[in-house]
Design goal:
This protein is α/β, with parallel strands linked by helices. 36% of the residues lie in helices and 20% in strands. The radius of gyration is 18 Å and the shape is globular. The model has no long low-confidence stretch (mean pLDDT 91).
């Protein structure tokens, strides 16, 4: 039977990496301060590293009092730490290649969540930002670079058309991430989501609105398969 670490308010999945190739990740948003601190301390003790998403500045300051080496990115809202200095090492030497593209600059926070997730799990990531369809020459000028990737993450709000454009340019899988960026009729990302799941371009899969973490996770699985690596 699979093991877990009983904390009463949480049951930490200590066997997850053995089963799936990925350790448990903390969704920080909404967690009480004392719970979050105890979870981070226990995971650091068990695994030697911790990766959390959707953390705010207050949570960072709270966790930092217990774990001084914890690192926080205000853009991606990633809160991570490691028992050694691996959390701060340059991640440019990861395996394979995952490329993350955004429609606009406002999409970068979600894109960075995806990019940092893929880097944390061992992938090499290239960022190509602000190549939306309102100036389509921008993405076309990067087409050859984008084609080099084992997997492409496309992060876009508004009408979400960038995923279809890139899907028609590359042979490898595209993971589309709709964002909540846009005016009223974008309905908090629903318009982009509907465009992406109705794309006529082949090879596109879609994750939930603003789910950069989910895109980075799936992209890592694809990238590992392309590299012949399980983890």
């Amino acid at each position: 039977m699979d093991k877990y670490d009983e904390m009463h308010f949480a049951k930490l999945d200590t066997d997850r990496e053995k089963r799936t190739g990925f350790p448990e990740v903390v969704f920080c948003e909404g967690k009480r301060d004392e719970y979050l601190v105890q979870i981070y301390k226990r995971l650091l003790e068990n695994d030697g590293r911790v990766f959390g998403t959707r953390a705010n500045l207050h949570q960072y300051e709270t966790v930092k009092t217990a774990i001084p080496g914890v690192q926080y990115n205000e853009v991606s809202k990633i809160l991570k730490c490691a028992a050694d200095d691996s959390a701060s090492k340059n991640t440019s030497e990861g395996i394979g290649l995952i490329t993350v593209c955004t429609g606009g600059t406002a999409d970068i926070p979600v894109a960075e969540e995806a990019a940092e997730t893929a880097e944390y799990f061992g992938g090499r990531v290239k960022r190509i930002y602000d190549v939306g369809v309102s100036g389509i020459h921008r993405v076309l000028s990067k087409a050859e670079e984008i084609r080099e990737a084992n997997c492409v993450i496309v992060v876009a709000g508004m009408e979400g058309a960038l995923a279809s454009v890139i899907g028609g340019l590359v042979e490898n899988p595209v993971i589309a991430v709709p964002t909540s960026v846009g005016y009223g009729a974008s309905m908090g990302g629903l318009s982009a989501l509907l465009t992406m799941i109705n794309s006529c371009a082949n090879g596109i899969t879609v994750v939930n609105i603003d789910n950069g973490y989910g895109a980075g996770y799936v992209a890592t699985q694809i990238n590992r398969l392309a590299c012949g690596s399980k983890n």
